[in-house]
Amino acid sequence: MLGFPIQYNEPLFRPPSEGRSLIIQITLGCSWNKCSFCEMYTSKRFTVRKQEDVFQDIEAFLPWADQITKVFLADGDPLVLSNAKLLPILNKLTATFPNLRRISTYASPSNINRKSQEELKELHAAGLQLLYVGIESGDNATLEAIQKGETFESTVNGINKGQEAGFDTSVMIITGVGGKLHSQQHAIKSADVLNATQPKFASTLVLTAHKGLEHYRDRFKGEFIELNLLEQLNEMKRFMQNVELEDTIFRSDHASNRLVLKGVLGRDKEMFLKQINQAIQDPLGNIRSVYGGY
Ligand code: SF4
Predict the structure, then answer these.
(1) Distance of CA 149 from the midpoint of ligand 1 (Å)
(2) What stretches in the chain show pLDDT beneath 50?
(3) End-to-end CA separation in angstroms for the chain
């Protein structure tokens, strides 16, 4: 869009699938901001934006109102806000953009769990449809090491509670996030979280230490030994072997993934396992460039 009508508080993040969505910042930063692998909002102090400023941003797009079909609410976890703050924003969006089909946001399991079923249903009825949940791992020891502030139980409860209220969920697992010491349990329990929640969308990405491995090790509770490429593939294989999904759109096509997998689980499980096995047999022949994609 030429002459972009609002100014974002940078840095600004969104999931890859929200590339064509209008992004409206209703909070700045992340209320948790402690995960050892995440540098997205470490430069920001968590702030709740004033409703009048959010409304001003929404109104700035009035000239393009008919063209806006998807909105993503940023930054880190807007569901930390009360419904008293969220509902007027959702109502404003649906009143302003007549062709709006979807409103989505990042959501932590804990913040979903903090809301009652009625509150979640109110949000869904007001137009919030899709929640992006960074599971990262289903293994409690790994979750503690990466300071996620969640457990297997809180994650499963949060996702299921959201889904029962009507939300679609898109979840993410990080290959290699626990390093060698946690790899086996991380793979198995991450598959278990997905099995227990059956999300509509799931994806994996590979741990990327944006500020370097030493920095990641400093933030990791315990010993972290990085996985090499073959170990990443073996972790992925174990995860895939343990996944029992009925109808989940699966992607491992983030730039960090050395092996790209796209399909539907469970339909494509055997095909994925074959592709992973091929990559294990011939890692350099079957993967995309380790350095490519960024
Ligand atoms: S909750 Fe999400 S945004 Fe916040 S620190 Fe963790 S990964 Fe980053």
Answers:
(1) 10
(2) 289-294
(3) 24
Counting ligand 1 atoms within 8 A of each CB, the residue from 30, 79, 205, 220 with the most, and so the one to mutate, is 30
Please, are residues 256 and 205 in contact by the beta-carbon 8 Å criterion?
yes
| Cα diameter, the chain | 58
Let me know if 36 is exposed, middle or buried by CB neighbors in 10 A (0-12, 13-18, 19+): buried
- For 241-270, the pLDDT digits (tens) are 999 999 999 999 776 677 899 999 989 999
Question: What residue ranges do the domains of the chain occupy?
Answer: 16-284
- Half-sphere exposure for 114 (CA within 13 Å, toward CB): 13
* Residues recorded for the chain: 294
The pairing of strands 70-74 and 168-175 is: unpaired
pTM: 0.94
Query: Around Cβ 99, how many Cβ atoms within 10 Å?
Result: 10
Tell me, in angstroms, the distance from the centre of ligand 1 to residue 33's CA: 5
Q: Which fold has domain 16-284?
A: pyruvate-formate lyase- activating enzyme (3.80.30)
Supply the pLDDT for residue 291.
34
User: What are 104-138's pLDDT values in tens digits?
Assistant: 999 999 999 999 999 999 999 999 999 999 999 99
Q: Which residue has the tokens 């010491």?
A: 181
Bridge-based pairing state of the strands 102-106 and 70-74: parallel
